[in-house]
Amino acid sequence: MEKRIYPEPIESVVSPEPYERRSFTNAEDAVEALKELYARNTQFLRDCFEALGKGADPSKRYRAYYPEVGVTTSSYSQVDSRQAYGHMPTPGTFSTTVTQPQLFESYLLEQLRLIMRNHGVPVTVAESRTPIPLHFAFLEGTYVDGSIAERIKRPIRDLFDVPDLDGTDDHIANGTFEALLGEDRPLAPFTAQRIDYSLHRLSHYTATSPNHFQNFVLFTNYQFYIDEFCLYARDLMAKGGEGYDSFVEPGNIVTTAGEPRPADCVVPTRLPQMPAYHLTKPGHGGITMVNIGVGPSNAKTITDHVAVLRPHAWLMLGHCAGLRNTQALGDYVLAHAYVREDHVLDDDLPVWVPIPPLAEIQVALQEAVAEVTGLSGYELKRIMRTGTVATIDNRNWELREQRGPVQRLSQSRAIALDMESATIAANGFRFRVPYGTLLCVSDKPLHGELKLPGMATEFYKRQVAQHLTIGIKAMEKLAEMPTERLHSRKLRSFSETAFQ
């Protein structure tokens, strides 16, 4: 019988030199400290992994920790009640782990400046007690040679920390987190490891770097919209950008304003599951568009991950079934309420939770429709109806016994049906991201009105271009608003994190 050889036991844990907690009264200095600490600790893990591949001691464990930013306040004094974020709800100590501070620099600066201004207290930067998983320590796009792992004679989990699902939940965002006695309360809606998990998923699903994502995000369920967005963006780049810096396509192909598309760019042989396209502006102030495909599962997946980037707004542009006989193909539906039969968020956001319309989003969408179509006031009602949108998880609901679904749709006063909009709006509500929906009626199944093949082609050519123009114009209107106005107090619960 072959004798088994067991590896030597782990003798000790090797970490970088301890980082002394530091206090800051300036947000810029605090963020610089976070960047330096994060860079040091991730570099340590990368160096240790490389050294092990070259024969370093495999009887030690290698560990480095996420940076942490914290703040303590002892006053119940009221801050400006108009503000939706940037202040602590009660006295106490609040903290959050931080990852990729370079990517989140502008976000961190805004949040810390508001806290310092509203409470008049310093913030501290320290090492947390949460280890950085080795997988999240590698720089984006790093190729890890498989032969290195083969030369390491122990399982990676023996030597390094790996992603821990216990640290990637949404208890804070869901409002179900309960701090233990003596434990800091959360300062931000997401922990560093939860963010890292989503950043890696975004790269995988969209084939673009999270760094390219903009603060205003359009979701669609049809490739026609993406094709039109690409034509629009490329035309802008050829004209010099008109305020936009670049256009980024899957594979991180970047076309700079005023320059031709790179001749040596490598186009992916296959598009990813949910390809993303980015029309960029300084400070991530441009527009990202993602083809999420069909269904509430995809809608939840992409918004779960985009949410960690803390965008300023996301909108759903897509097609729907019109449920009223008075609607015509090509009419618009501006959602002001949702019937949620998607079921993918039932465990995170119960269906009894109302998803309110947000005035800033509704006004921007209605104004954009009026400006693009040339209609206003009472005349606008000819082509647009405001009402309840129902989202269902069964694409072929018509093939089942219809009395139940049709009765519920009628009782809810629904005017349109799709498979994504309520999910995107509900996840916007859950993650405090301003949301909205503008759909286009593409068929009327309850009234036997379906598009014939030739009609469909002509319909898409005509209607998609106008619909997309409306979506872009609405986003540009939202981008002109101060962020403190756009991020509504409606989205904040009783005891909120200070970070937006």
Question: Would you give an account of this structure?
Answer:
With 500 residues, this protein is an alpha/beta fold. The protein folds into two domains: 12-200, amp nucleosidase, domain 1 (2-Layer Sandwich); 207-491, Nucleoside phosphorylase domain (Rossmann fold), CATH 3.40.50.1580. It is built from 14 helices and 17 strands. A five-stranded mixed sheet has the order 2-6-4-5-7. A five-stranded mixed β-barrel has the order 13-16-15-14-17, surrounded by four helices. α6 packs across α8 (296-306), α8 (296-306) runs parallel beside α12 and α9 packs across α13. The chain is globular, with a radius of gyration of 25 Å.
Helical content (DSSP H or I, runs of 4+): 25-40%
Overall spatial form: globular
- Whole-number mean pLDDT: 90
Note the main sheet: 5 strands, mixed
Strand count: 17
How many angstroms separate the termini? 62 Å
Short description:
It is built from 14 helices and 17 strands. The chain is of the alpha/beta class and 500 residues long.
Task: Write the topology of this structure.
Layout: E1 12-14, E2 22-24, H1 27-53, E3 60-62, E4 65-73, E5 92-97, H2 105-119, E6 123-131, H3 146-151, H4 156-159, H5 171-174, E7 185-186, H6 192-206, E8 216-220, H7 223-238, E9 246-249, E10 253-256, E11 276-280, E12 287-291, H8 296-306, E13 313-322, E14 332-341, H9 359-373, H10 377-380, E15 384-392, H11 403-411, E16 414-418, H12 421-431, E17 435-443, H13 453-479, H14 483-486
Parallel strand pairs: 1-3, 5-7, 8-12, 8-13, 13-17, 14-15, 15-16
Antiparallel strand pairs: 2-6, 4-5, 4-6, 9-10, 9-11, 11-12, 13-16, 14-17
Helix pairs in contact: 6-8, 7-13, 8-12, 9-13
